[in-house]
Amino acid sequence: MMTLHDTIFGGVGGTLCLYFLFVLMTARVASALELPRASLFNKLLVVLDTHRFSHSQLDFTLYVARQLGATLTVRFVLRPHTDQKATTMLTQYVAEKAEEVGVCVRSQRGQFKDVLKHLVTEHSPDCVLMGQERFSWFSLPKGYTLPILVMPKQPKARLENFLMPFENTSESFEALDKASQLAQTFRARLYPIHLLELPSAPPKGARAWMYVNREEVVADFARERERLKHRAKNLLFKVRQDFPGVTPELYETSSAERYQALETIARKQNTDLIVVGNTELGKVSRQFVRHLATRTPVLIL
């Protein structure tokens, strides 16, 4: 008489059963041994003014810290004639709401740029968060290269759609890799775009002296545009290979319309965060970063 044990583990069925048990046990062991991926940012420094939008910006920074599992240091900069009562209320608000992320909250008197430089040197953060109204590259210590997150006055409660313009440089691909890590951490969608600047018209005047006739000028102009498009398509193919799961897009624009194109795309894509590589700030100027951040947070890597 066959027992239940013989039915399960005997013959071919038993072999298959033991095989699946082996696979299951192997997967569990591998999962247990897998080390968690280190967070991109572990120490965040938030430097804010005391104004009526501080609550919104603080809620946003607490959300970012929780998602990253990062420690958070918050400083309110008290300028002359700052309302001390309002500052005390904001400090208590953060301390009560953010015990789980290890928040250190203090206020400090002085000029914003002087306080910021001192705090960056003292705390050595991985990333600095500040309001759009206070963002200035010249407020940071000389040689500063760490990431900056510039916040609007009323940022969204969650980050679900990331937009990042990229170029054909190793620095841009490195920034894209960091943006991809952040998107995974926030469980957000990353939307990389390449803004292809195309010449809008054939050269005139001194630039056209080398051509024999106008037809040659037009033909060479058309060839140059096609060459740039072909190179851009190859760049998109490389991004798809290096970053599976993302779908980069190509947008044709001109140097004069680049900023407006980025702003329009961000609005159409319902973007929650714009990521810009530090080396691309020549393409997307610092002043325009401040303009973008009036609507959408901008992360400068």
Structural overview:
By secondary structure, the chain is α/β, with parallel strands linked by helices. 45% of the residues lie in helices and 19% in strands. A ten-stranded mixed β-sheet has the order 3-2-1-4-5-10-9-6-7-8, with helices on both faces. The radius of gyration is 26 Å and the shape is elongated. About 7% of the residues have low confidence.
Question: What's this model, at a glance?
Answer:
45% of the residues lie in helices and 19% in strands.
- N- to C-terminal separation? 71 Å
Number of helices: 9
Spans of 5+ residues with little confidence (pLDDT < 50)? 18-37
- How many beta-strand elements? 10
Radius of gyration: 26 Å
Characterize the biggest β-sheet.
Answer: 10 strands, mixed
Helical content band: 40-55%
SS-derived structural category: alpha/beta
Provide the residue-averaged pLDDT. Answer: 77
- Note the beta-strand portion: 15-25%
One letter per element, helices H and strands E, the order comes to HHEHEHEHEEEHEHEHEHE
Major beta sheet, strand line-up = 3-2-1-4-5-10-9-6-7-8
Shape: elongated
How are the secondary structure elements laid out?
Elements: H1 4-9, H2 11-33, E1 43-48, H3 54-68, E2 71-78, H4 84-97, E3 103-109, H5 112-123, E4 127-131, E5 148-151, E6 161-165, H6 170-186, E7 189-197, H7 214-242, E8 249-253, H8 258-268, E9 273-276, H9 286-292, E10 298-300
Parallel strand pairs: 1-2, 1-4, 2-3, 4-5, 6-7, 6-9, 7-8, 9-10
Antiparallel strand pairs: 5-10
